[in-house]
From TrEMBL:
Chain ranges of the Protein kinase domain: 72-371
Entry keyword set: Kinase, Transferase
Protein name listed in UniProt: Kinase-like protein
GO CC aspect terms: nucleus
PROSITE patterns: PROTEIN_KINASE_DOM
Gene3D superfamilies on file: Transferase(Phosphotransferase) domain 1
CDD domains the record matches: PKc
Top-rank lineage group of the source organism: Eukaryota
InterPro entries reported in the protein's UniProt record: Kinase-like_dom_sf (IPR011009), Prot_kinase_dom (IPR000719)
GO biological process: mitotic DNA damage checkpoint signaling
Database matches in PANTHER family: OVARIAN-SPECIFIC SERINE/THREONINE-PROTEIN KINASE LOK-RELATED, PHOSPHORYLASE KINASE
SUPFAM superfamilies per record: Protein kinase-like (PK-like)
Amino acid sequence: MVDQRKPSRYIYLPPDAVKRQAELIRNGVYDLLPDEILWRDRYTSLLERGYRLRPRYHPDWRPSWTGTNLNPEFCEDAVVSDNPDVLDAVRESDGLRVAMKAVKKEGQEIQISQFLSSLQHRTNHCVPIVDAFRDPLDPFRTIMVMEYLRLWDDPELATVGDAVDFVTQMLEGLAFLHNQRVAHRDIAPQNVMMDGRALYPQGHHPVWRNRSPDAIEDLVPLARMDHPVKYYYIDFGLSVRFSPDQSSLVVGDVGRDAEVPELSSTVPYDAFKADIYALGNLFDKELAQKYHRLEFLQRIVNSMKQRQPASRPTASQLVTMFQETRKTLDAAEFRWRLAPKSEPVYERFINDTVAVAKNSISQLRRFVRPE
């Protein structure tokens, strides 16, 4: 069915602004950036492989607003990728949105990623790899094709239940990882993502993630509590896979989280225990320190952030510990709003009141069915 909606008036520019935009185009302001040119040069080869990049990266691309009064802020092909190392694409065979990354051909990242992705298990929270092939621009690199994901906190967690589910999945995922004798070694907020399709059933733009696929309309996500998402660990560029009888001791002050106390380029330390600290630090900074009503996390955070690595529980032990913690929570608590600690008291009162009203309406709708 053809969409008969007329474009919103705000996507058009007045005559003087149209002239300015024409001048900007002539001056190359909207030209591809150097990293984008590399993806443009891969366009045809990737299409032959079955993956279509956005129109911006077509070899013959010119701004779609050229010679029109369209505002480029609402033109999809004006959107520049926010990560030069990774680019979104669509798999032609089924329309699946994917993300592509050029990695070393024989590097550990592709090997470990493919190994973990091949393992089918409910608690596997490692980014799914859907394809891998030679980089058409560099025979020593591989294009790794992953399922498209978005950052775990975009949109932000909204309820206590959201936080509980996030912690549960991350602990289960780390236990799975360690049970496969793989240490991530770079656990940080930037390396945790989610499959957010459940929150945006009509889709969203891959870069302007809070806009519609055509980058015109603002979107409001559905609630995680009613539309659960799955979280994933990504970026195994620093990871290590140990053989069954191999020591898990490593050296290297690597990774985004420089606060792991034992990191050293000379003194060996347990890579698994370092992962435990890094994840505990994430829980602490991104959840416990940031929101009210998450005091129940403190016990597990404290155990994960023990200064002495040997004192920290294993990932499997943490899964069990948190299962016991969940049993102490009342089901009604899961729908409590996550109130930022930075929020003034009067704002918190108002926002809590609104949240209770919205939740009551949502619950009522579950029992009321239109005739």
